[in-house]
Structure formats: C-alpha cells, structure tokens
Write a structure and sequence with these properties.
The structure holds two protein chains of two kinds.
Chain A: H1 2-44, H2 48-64, H3 66-72, H4 75-94, H5 97-116, H6 122-125
Helix pairs in contact in A: 1-2, 1-5, 2-4, 4-5
Chain B: H1 2-22, H2 32-50, H3 57-79, H4 81-88, E1 92-96, E2 99-100, H5 102-107, H6 112-121, E3 130-135, E4 141-145, E5 168-172, E6 175-176, H7 178-183, H8 188-197, E7 206-211, E8 217-221
Antiparallel strand pairs in B: 1-2, 1-3, 3-4, 5-6, 5-7, 7-8
Classes of the chains: A mainly alpha, B alpha+beta.
Chain lengths: 126, 228
C-alpha cells in the first residue's frame, strides 16, 4: 500500500504543479498583454517614446522569464513571440501606426494563446 | 502541463482497455498495464530526445504519470482479486476433460492451428493425451495431460537419487567469485589445491568452474589454454 500512496502523491503533486503552472502562465501573459494594450493606446495618442519605453519594459519582463518559458512552453512558440517583440519595437522606432498596430495585436494574441494552451479546460484535453 | 498529464491518463487507460478487449493472445508474458507501459514509454522518451524544440518536461511528465499509474494499478491488482480479474482477466479453459471448448476458443480468438502449435511446443502432438489446456491471463497455455501420459517421476519409479543442491559459479571467464565460494563453504586454499590437481596454476586459464554443495564440480578451460 505504501507504493500506492507514493504513486498517488506523485500524481497529486504533478496535478497540483500543472494547475499552478496554468495559473502562473495566465497571470504572466495577462500582465504582459495588458501592458502591450496600454502601449498601443499611448501610440494612438502620439506618445511614441512612452509606448516604446513601455514595450521595451514588457520585452525585458518577457526575457526575465526565459528559463521558465523554455522549460514549460514549446520553443517554437516562445521564439515566435520573441520575433514578434523585435518587430513591434522596430515599428515603434519607425513610428508606423498601421504596421505597429497590426504587429502589436498579433503579439498580444500569440502571448494569450501561449497561456491558453496551459489551461485546465476540456477543450485543451480534447 | 495539465493537458499532457490528463491526456496521458486518458490514453493510458484507453490502451489498457483496448489490450484487454484484444484478448489474452495479444498480451504475451506481461500484464496489460505493463505491456501498455512498455509500448508507450520508449516512444514518449524518444520525442524530446530528438526534437530540441520541445521542453524536456513534455516527455518527463507523461513518463512519471505512466509509472505512477502502473504502480497504482499493480498495487490494486495485488490487493483486490476483483480488480485483478478486471484488469488481467481470468484464465480460460480451452480443453476440459479432454473436450475442446469451441465457444471459449472463439471468445479468445484462438484458432485450432494456434492451439495445436502451442500444444506441440509443450510436447503434446496427440490431442487425446491432453486432459486440460488452460489459456492463462498472460497469453500462455498450460497443459495438464491425462495421468497415463504423464512422465513418471523418480518417486513413482522407486529410485533413490541424490539432490545435488544449487550449483554456483566460482570462476567465470578467469574471474574468481569469492562470494559464491564462501556460500558453498569452500576456502581459497581448497580451490587452489583443486586447480593444482587439474593442472592449472591460476584462475586466468579457467573459463568456467561450477560447484554444488554435494561436491559436484564442473570445469571448462579457456579454449586457448591447456593445463600447464
């Protein structure tokens, strides 16, 4: 019975860990997305420097979670988001509103999709 | 992570049910849960091994999940007879009192050719010699012949024989296994004397030396060596 309990505890720990990871990924990506949306609003108001500064902060924040992201997420997804950040930062420097808005929206969607994959939902399981 | 965990559990249980439905003949010598584990685990490990774009956790979590589930099922099969019957099935009597049970054969998808082949491998070419043939839960067929077809035992023949005990390897490919020598109650001095008697100056020229507690010794020299 001891082995059964050990196996059950391991499963419970993994289940708990996966649920915590789902919550953590959701919190992380939601925070990043909201700040990118705010950056978009700043750009719309013509505050390009502030928008660029905020996006760079978000980018640095993303980079600071590099270990976690590479451990848990598919590398192709995180690499794509990294490319998205570079693209958005470039459009901010060039102050091209149309291109920036499209690239920023794409980046936000990619970041949200990343955490969506980790959520404990029936849709994901199926 | 959650998706991987839940998917692993669902697929594992699904394959176990599938294997059980396929019948005993497919199981081989493993329990269904062990067979499923051996089927999936290698594939799971190979994916993150080959694809560097996938986190290692993608392989580790399903593997630990499978091992934990197998451990739990294994404990449950030991503790509960009902669960064991559910997971591993029950033995099927294919030949009962010398009569073939065709329904049972059909239920287990066992053909006559397969049955005859199994009986031949057990040493029975004549079907009338078999009283019982039981398809075990591990897919093997146990054969019980009629008393008239059973080989006589030493006891039945009233012969006196000596039980030699368990033979142990003392020298393997020139290497002395000190533990086995001690287990048999022999000393190093005895071994040296024995080898000297046989014309060997050391262990290095002996390929295999086995001995049993009753004093039986079996020696094979290395092919390139001759007693000096």
């Amino acid at each position: 019975m001891k082995r059964f309990v050990i196996a059950a505890v391991i499963l419970a720990i993994m289940l708990g860990g996966s649920l915590y990871n789902a919550w953590y990924a959701q919190t992380l990506t939601e925070g990043l997305s909201r700040r990118l949306e705010h950056s978009h609003q700043l750009a719309q108001q013509g505050c390009w420097d502030q928008a660029a500064h905020l996006t760079r902060e978000v980018y640095q924040d993303w980079q600071s979670h590099h270990f976690y992201l590479h451990t848990v997420m598919r590398h192709s997804d995180t690499d794509q988001i990294l490319r998205g950040f570079r693209c958005v930062l470039q459009y901010l420097t060039l102050q091209e509103m149309d291109q920036y808005a499209a690239a920023n929206a794409d980046l936000i969607a990619q970041i949200r999709l990343l955490s969506e994959m980790e959520q404990a939902t029936l849709v994901n399981v199926l | 992570m959650f998706t991987g965990l839940v998917r692993t559990i669902i697929l594992y249980l699904l394959i176990i049910v599938g294997i059980r439905l396929m019948g005993k003949r497919q199981v081989g010598e493993l329990e269904p849960s062990e067979l499923v584990l051996s089927l999936i685990i290698a594939d799971l490990a190979s994916v993150p091994m080959q694809d560097f774009g996938i986190p290692l956790l993608t392989g580790i979590i399903p593997i630990i999940t499978l091992l934990s589930l197998t451990m739990m099922l294994s404990v449950l099969t030991m503790k509960s007879v009902r669960f064991r019957a559910l997971l591993c099935g029950r033995p099927s009597i294919i030949i009962r009192e010398g009569k073939l049970d065709q329904k049972e054969m059909a239920r287990n998808r066992l053909t006559v050719d397969e049955l005859l082949e199994e009986l031949r491998t057990k040493g029975y070419t004549d079907l009338t010699a078999v009283k019982y043939a039981i398809l075990e839960t591990n897919g093997q067929i146990s054969v019980l012949p009629y008393a008239a077809h059973k080989p006589p035992t030493v006891q039945q023949l009233n012969l006196s024989t000596q039980d030699p005990g368990l033979p142990l390897v003392i020298i393997s490919d020139g290497q002395l296994l000190q533990r086995n020598l001690a287990l048999l109650g022999y000393s190093r001095a005895w071994l040296n004397d024995y080898l000297k008697q046989k014309g060997y100056s050391g262990f290095s020229r002996v390929f295999l030396l086995m001995a049993d507690p009753s004093g039986g010794i079996y020696l094979i020299p290395k092919e390139s060596s001759r007693p000096s």
